[in-house]
Structures are given as C-alpha cells and as structure tokens.
Amino acid sequence: MKKLKFLMLFCLFGSMLFAAQKTTKTVKNEYDLKFNPNKYVSKETEINGQKIKYRAYENVVYVKNPVDKDYQNMNIYIPEEYFNNSSIGNYNSNNAPIFFPNTVGGYMPGKADTVGLGRDGKVKEI
C-alpha cells in the first residue's frame, strides 16, 4: 500500500513538472550592428516653402539582442544635399549638427521620433 501511495505521488508530481515546462522555443533575435548606408528611403518635406529631400534610415535597431525592438531603435535623417557636395544655409556634410529627436517624457520609454509636424502644427525637426 505504501508503495502504491509513493508511486501515485511520484506520478502526480512528475506530471506537474512536465506541465509547468514551456512548450515553445525561445527565439533569439540578433541584429547586425553594422550600419548599412544603402538601406534608406528617399523622402521630401517642405519647411517655410522650401522643399528638402532627405534620406530616411528608419527603425535602425542599435542593440544586438534587444529586449524590445519597438523602443531600441532610432531614425536617422540626412538631407540629400550633403551627399551631393551641396549645403543648406551654412551647413554641409562636414559641419552639420547632429540632432536626435526623442519622445521620452520623464522616466517613461519613448519610441523613435520622425520628421513631420508636431502637435502645434509646426515642423518638429530636420
């Protein structure tokens, strides 16, 4: 009788262990951190009546193994003039400022921002 109880308890706990195990495989997403300068989309926007063409490198993941790729990515926008040895105002490809827009408010996570109009209807950035 004791052997039967032991066997029943053993089977019960054994089945609980198997039921608690994950049945799906964890997929490890790895991203290549080497920047690809050819992976862009040509876009255009208008600021104060002036049309500006630019290269948009969007959703560039900057972490090899991101926890949340929706937040661990960035957008890069470069005016097309800089690739043609031209300038915009006093700026060219050698002295143009780098600006990283973000949507972080306080300690909350924020997704990468994009070129466009802000909530006030004015151009956010370029």
Walk me through the topology.
Elements lengths: L1 H19 L20 E7 L2 E12 L11 E7 L47
Strand order of the largest sheet: 1-2-3
Query: Biggest β-sheet: count, sense, barrel?
Result: 3 strands, antiparallel
Q: Tell me the count of domains.
A: 1
What proportion strand?
Answer: 15-25%
User: Uncertain regions: pLDDT < 50 for 5+ in a row?
Assistant: none
Task: Calculate the terminal CA-CA distance, rounded to whole Å.
Answer: 80 Å
Count all strands and give the number.
Answer: 3
Specify the number of helices.
Answer: 1
Output the helix-strand order: HEEE
Helix fraction?
Answer: 10-25%
* Average of per-residue pLDDT values: 79
Task: Explain how this protein is built.
With 126 residues, this protein is α+β, with helices and mostly antiparallel strands. It has one domain. It has one helix and three strands. The chain has one helix at 2-20, and strands spanning 41-47, 50-61, 73-79. Strands 1-2-3 form a three-stranded antiparallel beta sheet, with no helix packed on it. A hairpin with a 2-residue loop joins strand 1 and strand 2 (50-61). The chain is elongated. The N and C termini lie far apart (80 Å).
Can you tag this structure with a few keywords?
alpha+beta
